[in-house]
Input
Amino acid sequence: MRRRKITFCLVNEGEVMEQRAFGKTDMKVSVLGFGGAEIGFESADQATVRELLTIALDQGLNVIDTAECYVDSEELIGHAIGQRRKDFHLFTKCGHGPNFSDEWESHQITKSIDRSLKRLKTDYVDLVQLHSCSEKVLAKGEAIEALKRAQKAGKTRYIGYSGDGTDAVYAIKLGVFDTLQTSVSIADQQCVELTIPLAVKAGMGVIAKRPIANAVWKNKTQPSNTYVQPYWERLQELKYDFINGDAEEPAARALRFTLSIPGVHTAIVGTTKPSRWQQNAQIVAMGALGEKEFKAIRARWQEIAKPEWVGQV
Output
């Protein structure tokens, strides 16, 4: 596996959290990041978010990723830790309004970024990402130019693309983005060969979203949430030997697998429970999977995966 330049920060007394150089940017990112979707969609209260993020920052996390369309996630984050802005790298996304309505026109993106800054209680973010737009939108160029203007104005330090599949391939080959955020997990491995190597070659920072496959193994029957159904269905066929009814073993193996993939710099995991973040941090402290374990998961995917098992947006 490709060796990475790393540094470390304190997690708990006697423990460390690995940090990885983030592509060609000047950032070093904690391998465990916080994904802000869950606190928005699950209506977390402000006190809980403040406790969760305060603990996380105190223990070494330095990546927080959110988006305007994650209900009130940006506002919750801004109110909780806005006063600690220098302690973490702040990422957000644009291009989707309420209910994920498409907003790719230049003026819409500009307004979205300005709203995000206000909600996050900051005058800049470290990264603004186009939120899973199509190749057609990218080719038009308007959305990219809006990001570049925001960068020139000092509203964001870097610009990125969040997406999967052939759209992500196109985004990478444009050569304009500093980062790629993509779905990668034990149930979503198309990007391991399709996009991540391209992103690494281009010097991009790589953010793994959905790194524990939404923990769908907790569902004994098919979940009603259509967003997670594909992962549940895939795992029924993959039948990994470590998914055996235990809730914790799959989570540990899944997160460590994602962070073992060459080129991945940080994996963003969402939660509304402070204790869950601490458990995830302890998993990360275990380090990468052993080569045998990693290869077994990859081999099982390569044996079972169907052509239609593409990266999930």
In short: The two ends are 26 Å apart (CA to CA). The domain at 6-304 is CATH 3.20.20.100 (TIM Barrel). The chain has one domain: 6-304. Residues 106-120 form the longest helix (15 residues).
